[in-house]
Amino acid sequence: MKRAILLLLCIFMVFTVSCKKSKEPEEEFIADEKYAKATGAAYLSDLFSGNYEDAYNEYPHDEAMENAVDANAYEEIFDGLYSQQGDFKAFRGTQTKTEGEYTIFTSGVIFEKGELNANVVFDSKGDIAGINFSEFTFDRESSERLGDEELNEIAKGYLRDLLEERYEDAYNNYDHNDQMTEMVNPDEYRNIFEELKETAGQFIEFNGNDSSQKGIYSIVTMGVLFEKQNYNMNVSFDENRDIAGLNFSLYTFGEKVLPEGTREMDVEFGLQEWKLTGKITLPEADGVYPALVLVHGSGPNNMNETVGLNEPFKDIAYKLAQKGIAVLRYDKRTFTYGEKIAELKDFTVYDETIEDAAEAVKFVHGLDYVEKDRIFVLGHSLGGYLMPRIAEVTPEADGYIMASGIYSSLAEIVPYQIDYLNKLDGIVTDEEKKLLEDTEAVVDKMLNPDAINENEIVFGAYKAYWEDLSQYDPIELAGNIEKPAYVFQGDRDYQVPVKEYDAIFKALNGRKNFTFKLYPGLNHLLVYGEDKPTPQEYYSKGEVYEPLLEDLIGFMKGGN
């Protein structure tokens, strides 16, 4: 269990690498109609969503198809298709049939100007052997017998029965497809939702909904508010409008009611190839305000920097907006483009964090409700570690805040974290000793990247990432910062030990533009506690420490 927690929470992870769908079938595998239907629907969904790289790389093609197409060829084919038929609108109806050695999955496709059948051909091994288009053969009217509004009502009623513990009704009163009928029953629903309530608390109400299409499936997403943690609940319907799936995901519909005296706007900014979405939280009244840009820690963080049940960036945004400061938070590049980034061997922390932080500051500087000479940047964890480099590329910023940062190197922190978690229960097993030994061997590569092979991934990143960091001395570079800087840490932070704070304090405490503070009782997420810090406390709802937030406000409004 400790190992599982470690893999989830260690701060050095760069991004998640998705599992490829490429199939290595066993010799006895023979593709059947069920396989063709599921794979064909997902493949067409990627193509019609413009995910040409995924359509080529994540589905097995036979040799002839591999030679005939690639991602660019797919794009050319579909650009030509759209020029004739207009924009893609929806899938309507499916059919799967076997002809000799081949199985053909067909889906009706509705375009702006017309409709066609899209036919995906699979060989007996399950490899895609062809794709073509033919005359539309499905009953468009009957396939549209339930629209989004009707599906939304069905999904809402189904979820309400589950959330209000009417598990028999949820199972018996709504049509499930064959797979769902086999997978769930009233008792299984009970187990799932009782476990959910232990984590999220009691159901409060629905807040927001959305509809989307994924292959042959129509997906209704409902925002659900609970006492402790909100979720999106996604109900999938197949082409017959039977319930084909249910899952939970990150809540995306915003707060039912923002804190008193605040307002919030959705924004988009950044480089054309890496556009990012986020929110600006503002005081409710019109005016011109100081601004704070929030820069995440390691990993594919969302705009709230959600860890377990905690959302430190949202806490900061709400509190500071109530006190007269505009706050920008945004989804990190590795959160938005994780699969694409996982293939980039030249990816570094500049691409992961620094470049987008610079774009965020530039974006905020251009807003007419922001004081041009009162823009600050707060970097948490990895963001704090990289703040000296961020300062170099953000001339529009007027001050820098380093929260829970590392000032030695990422590599040196990894063994410390593992050793700490190994000893939490007072017992270090042979397996845990082996884990630490293996980690120390990998850390040697992080510190000496010449030992990393070109195609080798070390703690989530290729060689270029560690080459870049091996030359970085954050304390030395921080000495070049001439604008006001605020450095702080909590003394209950088990992910970044206090010695990291001590190191930068010792080096730069004499500088008049630097302010330092060590907060008793704060963990890595800036939440106050008194017990020995553990990963489990991240799964208890907490909020960023109020006195810390007041100090941030004072620093920004009063300067250094």
Explain what this protein looks like in three dimensions.
This protein is an alpha/beta fold and 560 residues long. The chain has three domains: 31-143, Nuclear Transport Factor 2, Chain: A, CATH 3.10.450.590; 148-250, Nuclear Transport Factor 2, Chain: A; 262-408 and 472-558, Alpha/Beta hydrolase fold, catalytic domain (Rossmann fold), CATH 3.40.50.1820. 38% of the residues lie in helices and 23% in strands. The chain is built from 22 helices and 16 strands. The protein has helices spanning 2-9, 33-48, 52-57, 63-68, 71-85, 140-143, 148-163, 167-172, 178-183, 186-200, 312-322, 333-336, 338-341, 349-365, 382-385, 387-392, 410-422, 430-447, 463-470, 474-478, 498-508, 546-558; strands at residues 88-99, 102-111, 115-122, 128-135, 203-214, 217-226, 231-237, 243-250, 262-269, 276-283, 289-295, 326-330, 370-380, 399-403, 485-490, 514-519. It has an eight-stranded mixed β-sheet, with helices on both faces. The chain has a four-stranded antiparallel β-sheet with strand order 1-2-3-4. Strands 5-6-7-8 form a four-stranded antiparallel β-sheet. β15, α21 (498-508) and β16 (514-519) form a beta-alpha-beta unit. α17 runs antiparallel to α18 (430-447). The model is unreliable at 1-27 and 142-146 (pLDDT under 50).
Structural class: alpha/beta
- What is the name of the CATH class of the largest domain? Alpha Beta
Total individual domains: 3
Mean pLDDT: 87
Strand order of the largest sheet: 9-10-12-11-13-14-15-16
Total of helices: 22
Uncertain regions spanning at least 5 consecutive residues: 1-27, 142-146
- At CATH level 2, the architecture of the largest domain is 3-Layer(aba) Sandwich
Q: Which range best describes the helical content: under 10%, 10-25%, 25-40%, 40-55%, 55-70% or over 70%?
A: 25-40%
Most strands sheet: 8 strands, mixed
Instruction: Please report the distance between the alpha carbons of the first and last residues.
Output: 45 Å
Number of strands: 16
Oligomer status: single chain
Shape: globular
Supply Rg: 26 Å
